[in-house]
Design goal:
By secondary structure, this protein is of the alpha/beta class. It is built from eight helices and eight strands. One of its GO terms (biological process) is proteolysis. This is M28 family peptidase.
Length: about 325
């Protein structure tokens, strides 16, 4: 009888613990979905029509339009009470002309962050480049709505969603750095400056970089099809990161994740051509989110009216969900 009672008690305890675990998972899922819904096509469109307007003059590195862009980003973070990790009110990390190619003026990265509630010294980076190619010789403005206005406004909406969670007492366990880098178009210089010269947070404490570069359009390979994203680099340094990414997608949004450009033999070599690479070369796991190129790539015709905002909303939510998981899971993803 004593043994029977022991077995019954153990069974009840196991059932209780299992139920509690399931409730925690459901609560986490519900929380993530609640804040993901704050990322909307309407807000993405509103910000992109400003950021990719003629007023910003194509955001050429070091040029007046790029200076307007960094002020726009700073003003957004100030308005949403998302602080800078550099110093109070100072969101600009100067990238000096001496670091940049000859003839390029001083430029700036823009940094904002949310401090982790339990593991503040571990950093998840979400990055996108703030610059574009500026004004053509004939005076045409290259607005860069997709490249990389789409990634830039995606970060703003992700930051706003995490801030809402923090205000409700559900902020991320790890710290999240929202990193807008300059001079990508002239050789990934802004991200190189951050990783090689002045990392605000130690690279050894940086758990992952989620890099967003062009996620607002549809390329020829997917015209007329379902929503998709190219993912590049997710399994190159951490198989666990790739597995987490796949699980998050299956759980929340079920996009068509296309790994065509993740092939080591891809002649485009996209893995080496955006800012995540400066993190990857420092053994930091990365995911590069990308919609592929299109006829308006690096042309004045890359304008905000050609963005698919419903697709952009879902893609941005996928990145938010992935960041949510990486920021809140018990252990950082393992480096292979």
């Amino acid at each position: 009888m004593k043994n029977l009672l022991t077995l019954v008690c153990l069974s009840l305890l196991f059932t209780s613990c299992k139920g509690e675990s399931q409730n925690n998972v459901e609560t986490t899922t519900a929380s993530a979905e609640t804040y993901a819904e704050k990322i909307t096509a309407a807000d993405l469109k509103k910000n992109l029509y400003i950021y990719a307007s003629d007023e910003f003059e194509g955001r050429g590195t070091g040029e007046p339009g790029q200076k307007k862009a960094v002020e726009f980003l700073k003003d957004f973070y100030v308005a949403n009470d998302i602080p800078s990790p550099i110093a109070e009110g100072n969101y600009h990390q100067k990238v000096p002309a001496s670091f940049l190619p000859n003839g390029t003026k001083d430029s700036e990265n823009v940094l904002a962050y949310i401090k982790g509630s339990e593991k503040p010294d571990e950093i998840l980076v979400i990055s996108a480049h703030l610059d574009h190619i500026g004004v053509s010789a004939n005076g045409d403005i290259n607005n860069g709505a997709d490249d990389d206005g789409s990634g830039t406004v995606a970060i703003l909406e992700i930051a706003k969603a995490f801030k809402a969670a923090e205000l409700d007492g559900k902020g991320p366990k790890r710290s999240i750095l929202f990193l807008h880098v300059t001079a990508e178009e002239i050789g990934l210089q802004g991200s190189k400056y951050y990783t090689d010269v002045e990392p605000i947070f130690p690279l050894e404490n940086t758990v992952t970089d989620l890099n967003i570069d062009m996620i607002g359009r549809v390329d020829d390979n997917h015209e007329g099809g379902d929503n998709y994203l190219y993912l590049i680099g997710s399994d190159k340094l951490s198989q666990e990161l790739h597995d987490v990414s796949e699980a998050v997608n299956n759980k929340y949004v079920n996009l068509d994740l296309d790994y065509t450009y993740n092939d080591e033999n891809d002649p485009n070599r996209f893995y080496y051509r955006s800012d995540h690479y400066n993190f990857a070369k420092n053994n930091i796991p990365v995911i590069f989110y990308f919609n592929g190129t299109h006829d308006d790539y690096h042309k004045p015709s890359d304008t905000p009216d050609k963005i698919n905002y419903e697709f952009l909303e879902t893609r941005t939510r996928l990145i938010f969900y992935t960041a949510w998981e990486l920021a809140n899971r018990e252990n950082r993803v393992k480096l292979d």
